From TrEMBL:
Keyword Signal: yes
Position of the signal peptide: 1-18
A Pfam family hit: TraB_PrgY_gumN
Xref: PANTHER family: CYTOPLASMIC PROTEIN, CYTOPLASMIC PROTEIN-RELATED
CDD domains: Tiki
Region of interest (Disordered), residue spans: 26-74
Keywords attached to this entry: Signal
Tagged with keyword Metal-binding: no
Protein name: TraB family protein
Low complexity: bias regions: 41-51
Species of the source: Paraburkholderia phenazinium
Superkingdom classification of source: Bacteria
Length: 351
């Protein structure tokens, strides 16, 4: 489903759990070590830490190439929009929760229009506040991980066998995933596909925005609480969770990798409606049960879109612009954030 790249920041936490769980037993309060920085990396930092997953060897970072070819001297375009209603302005940036170093050149990580909007905004609103994101690994462990090997009992034998085949060359990952509930297992499978594309959590858009924003300002808020975001996943029914994982296993790893690269390229181009159209077409192909698949989208995308917009309207006010950054897959389409803002009387234009 590619939920991990753009639907919610639990993706880095799923990565963190997978990397640290081997050294953390349930008796140790379920708090895995975080393998990637919890706070944004300074732009000047020479280190290139990588998320580490059991049995996974990610592509080495190269200073001359990226997932899409030669390193660019210009930042990725990214989907960026300006919504206005009278004297109320909301800047909206579509993010990816993972990225490539070349997306954010150190001398200019974002386009001038984006940097100007950040400078003009007293508030930066992310899906989760930084404080909530720091403690989110506890909730992922609490609600996504079992004390015993529960995953095989949650899945039909055919789906479990398919997952075993997918991870047969990675026994460490298979051992870890056995203790996960299906929704978290789904995010982990997507994690491997994303890291195989060379994308890194520390180059997610939110971390890079904070690098810039915290130099001159400090007010960063969340558009939803940690509890609200977690319930979007933990309240999924057994059928919904199985559908979510089944969709990740429809294609081969190479086909999933190609999808990750396609989404990354579309995000670089910066057209939210093109991203939404591509995702809708992919959903039609991957859905095993269309009714259940649609209900998942409603829970983890459309309900949250409405919550995001409601919070934006509370934060923004006349002559008090707010800069909003949410996953790019939340923006476009007839039920996306941009259309919801239009329904509230905003004029929305590409920035």
């Amino acid at each position: 489903m590619l939920a991990s790249l753009s639907f919610g920041p639990v993706w880095p936490v799923a990565t963190a759990y997978a990397a640290g769980a081997a050294a953390t037993t349930p008796a140790q309060s379920g708090r895995p070590a975080l393998p990637v920085p919890a706070a944004p990396l300074p732009q000047s930092s020479p280190a290139q830490p990588r998320a580490t997953l059991p049995g996974f060897n990610p592509p080495r970072y190269s200073s001359s190439t990226t997932t899409g070819g030669p390193v660019r001297t210009q930042p990725a375009r990214m989907p960026f929009y300006v919504a206005t209603r009278g004297t109320t302005t909301i800047y909206i940036l579509g993010t990816l929760h993972v990225g490539d170093p070349a997306d954010y050149p150190p001398n200019q990580p974002f386009r001038p229009q984006i940097l100007a909007a950040l400078a003009a905004s007293p508030t930066l609103a992310l899906e989760l506040s930084p404080d909530d994101l720091l403690v989110s690994q506890d909730d992922v462990s609490k609600y996504g991980v079992c004390r015993s090997e529960c995953l095989p009992t949650y899945l039909p034998e055919s789906l479990w066998h398919k997952l075993e085949v997918r991870l047969r060359d990675n026994p460490a990952a298979l051992d870890e995933i056995k203790r996960m509930r299906p929704w978290l297992a789904s995010l982990l499978v997507e994690t491997y596909d994303s890291l195989s594309a060379g994308l890194q959590t520390e180059y997610g858009t939110e971390a890079q925005l904070q690098n810039v924003y915290l130099r001159t300002r400090g007010k960063i808020v969340g558009l939803e609480t940690l509890g609200e975001q977690m319930r979007s996943f933990t309240s999924l029914s057994s059928a919904q969770q199985r559908e979510m994982l089944a969709q990740d296993l429809v294609q081969t790893p190479a086909e999933n990798l190609a999808d990750v690269q396609t989404l990354h390229r579309l995000w670089r181009v910066g057209d939210a409606d093109a991203i939404a159209a591509w995702q809708a077409a992919k959903s039609e192909v991957l859905a095993r049960n269309k009714r259940v698949s649609d209900s998942i989208d409603n829970k983890i995308v459309y309900e949250r879109n409405r919550r995001f917009v409601a919070r934006m309207l509370l934060i923004a006010g006349p002559n008090k612009p707010v800069f909003v950054a949410v996953g790019a897959l939340h923006l476009g389409g007839p039920k996306g954030v941009l259309q919801l803002l239009r329904q509230h009387g905003f004029v929305v234009e590409a920035g």
